[in-house]
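ATP synthase gamma chain, Persephonella atlantica. Tokens?
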Amino acid sequence: MAKLSPRDIKRKIQGIKNTQRITKAMKAVSAAKLNKARAMLNATRPYSERLYDLINDLAMFVDREIHPLLRIREERKIDYVVITADRGLAGAFNSYVIKRTLSDVQKFQEEGKEVNLLLIGRKAVQFFKNKGYSIIEEYEDIYRDHMNLAFTSKVGGVLAERYENEKTDAVYLINNELITTATYETKVRKLFPIEPELSYDKLSELSRYNIEPSAEDVLEELLKRYINFQLYRALVESSTAEHAARMIAMDNATRNAGEAIKRWTIIFNKARQEAITTELIDIINAANAIE
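Tokens:
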């Protein structure tokens, strides 16, 4: 590598400072978005969990054969809903979901199962498209304007239709979920079929209530809401975790830029000192030659 002059080093330092200002600003933006997203997430989680518990409990009172989404079949065909971000600059946020998906798909294929992917997020679409995977649907740029129940109702309708017509035997969601402000985790959840666990305590508790007009009618309505809202929650979880991941990544980038500036400042000072020393030597040599 050619030796840099003090002027070149100074330009490099200025370039790093400019980058540092950008990463610092992006961290602040992500922190603001994270606070807003966490408020939405805190409002979403309790409803989602209570809705699942209610459907799980009601499923104990009905014949599972009366509703297509409750019928349990051998899992020979599986639909995987892969949720990533639309943008990068968030560390390993997207790669965690992609790597887990690849691992699960490989495992299922080795077991002789057919796997179909429904992709949400530009990063998932860019990675899996045109690579030989069976893709049901692709959705990009949904977080800004389309992350709502209207969108999840559309996606949920596609998944429900496939399960009811036995095009698939199980539907799974894979996405990142926020654990703490500084950590997130890739989670895989089964969307349906719902497989309730018979609990004597739950059965005793529910037996005290009268369900009108009937458990079947109530379950029919709740199942529609369940699919839509679980998809919505997965999007909110992913969006919140993305902001946290980007905030952490930009914080690390800002600190790394600061350390790089320190290193290059030392190099600049050494280069400047060498230049001064060289000039002094030239002056002394010139003076000696004149004498």
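The CA atoms of residues 30 and 243 lie 5 Å apart.
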